[in-house]
Amino acid sequence: MGLVYDDFGNRQRLAVLSERGVRVWGPDRVYVGEDVRLERICTGAALMNATITGSSTFIGAEAQIGVSGLARVHDAQIGSNSLLGAGSYENCVLLTGAKARGFAELRPGTVLEEESEVGHNVGLKNTVFTAGVAAGSLINFCDVLLTGGSSRNDHSEVGSGAVHFNFDPRGDKFGSLMGDATGCLLQSRRIFIGGNSGVVAPVHLAFGAVVAAGSIVRKDVAENQLSSGDAPGQSGDYDLDRYFDLSRKFYTTAKLVGNLHALRAWYQKVRLPFSESGDKPLYIAADGEFDRHIRHRVKELAKVIAKLEKSLSKPSKNSQDKLLYQQHRRLLENNDRIQSFLVREDYAEVPVSFVAEYEQLRNSRSHIDSVRSLPPEASQVAADWVREIADRPCLEMRALFALPD
Fold it and tell me: Residues 132, 165: contact at Cβ < 8 Å?
């Protein structure tokens, strides 16, 4: 059912918001749907050019909505001091000070942490940028977790015109991991993805990786390495129904899922218990978006596995087909197991020594400042805990494929 315009009711709702200290630019510029819970639009927020709907929508104090044109906000959670330009923002989360400058499309599964920023004409879905990450304009990044850097002056960056290619010719859909969940501790080397470049999923770019502008990356990039892409592939026969070695794609997916689980644990056991009341809705929503992305990845792998029976029916062409047959048969037989260990929330308790240090800092600092102020020993303990959670799905996938350590 589409939006039903209610001018009289809208004027009443805007009057209530204005009385509560929300800066409203008027009924000719702002529409607030009857399903919106007005108490979730905080005093000091500025509604400039906006259509706001959805019962779970939250807009924090001093957030600016519709700075550069009409912003459509639906069931999105927008933190304090955030800025939304023109665009569409649905089931996404922007934490304190995040910015989407204009004509963006932020779709479900998207989380922009504190001080992260995107330019103009940016499309994101099932994508997480941790604190301080910046992206330019004309960017399409779907199905990505990007971390890295230590501050807004030392951050991972995506150049204008960059694309993450998440679909392949078979219609299969994969995600990529850039950095890892330990980036939440703001102690990692930053990642740089040059403008007009492309990343073909699934790959892992380690901390310190640099992707040269104008290149296409199809393989993992190791820590502190420069990639200018690989050589063009050779032409030849291509059968859309035939699958080859799937170990790298499945293992990289498990690595991405594991790091999303680690971020969920970080939010559930660190951020939420010590959050201010105004941040709780944002953290709860972000946790939900991580879960949404995890389940999307699992669903997409299940689609691939469902196609393997047809692939197995193809006549053998070379000596390696026997090994591929065994691998694909193993995936078919373990489909339920794969889905189970990928979605399982198996989070170890956060180390007491880290919690003590963090809690003491958190009494007088923001979350970001607290993390930046952690002693090296406490930061390392937390990183080990995050890494342990992230590694679990990888270990199970590695065992399934009998991959070497």
Answer: no
Per-residue tokens: 322? 């026997």
pLDDT digits (tens, 9 = 90+) for 73-82: 999 999 999 9
CA distance readout (Å), 89 to 119, 148, 205, 266? 14, 25, 28, 25
Domain-wise residue ranges, the chain:
1-90, 247-401
**What length is written for the chain?**
405
Give the 3-state DSSP-derived string for 92-128, with helices as H, strands as E and coil as C: CEECCCCEEEECEEECCCCEECCCCEEEECEEEEEEE
- Asked if residues 124 and 105 have their Cβ atoms less than 8 Å apart, the reply is yes
Q: Is the peptide bond before 393 cis (omega within 30 degrees of 0)?
A: no
Spatial distance between the Cα atoms of 253 and 203, rounded to a whole number of angstroms: 9
Closest CA to 368 of 271, 285, 281: 271
Q: Count Cα neighbours of 162 within 13 Å in the Cβ-side half-sphere.
A: 26
- Rounded to 5 degrees, φ, ψ at 66 are 85, 40
Q: What is the DSSP string of 226-264?
A: EE---PPPPP----TT-----HHHHHHHHHHHHHHHHHH
- Return the number of other C-beta atoms located less than 10 Å from residue 379's C-beta: 20
* Among 52, 71, 70, residue whose Cα is nearest residue 14: 52
Cα–Cα separations (whole angstroms), residue 67 to 84, 89, 303:
6, 14, 41
- Would you state the structure tokens that stand for residue 317, as one six-digit string? 């062409």
Q: 């218990």: which residue's tokens?
A: 273
Q: What is the pLDDT of residues 204-262, one digit of tens each?
A: 999 999 999 999 999 999 999 999 986 555 456 668 788 989 999 999 999 999 999 99
Cα–Cα distance for residue pair 136/122, rounded to 1 Å? 8
Q: What is d(CA 74, CA 92) in angstroms, rounded to the nearest whole number?
A: 9
Contact criterion met (CB below 8 Å) for 96 and 114: yes
Cα dist from 107 to 2, 263, 352, whole Å: 18, 19, 36
* Two tokens, residue 33: 């749907």
Global pTM reads 0.94
3-state secondary structure 310-345: HHHCCCCCCCCHHHHHHHHHHHHHCHHHHHHHHHCC
Pairing of strands 149-151, 154-155: antiparallel
Question: For 40-72, b where at least 16 C-beta lie within 10 A, e where not — what string?
Answer: ebbebbbbbbbbbbbebbbbbbbbbbbbbebbb
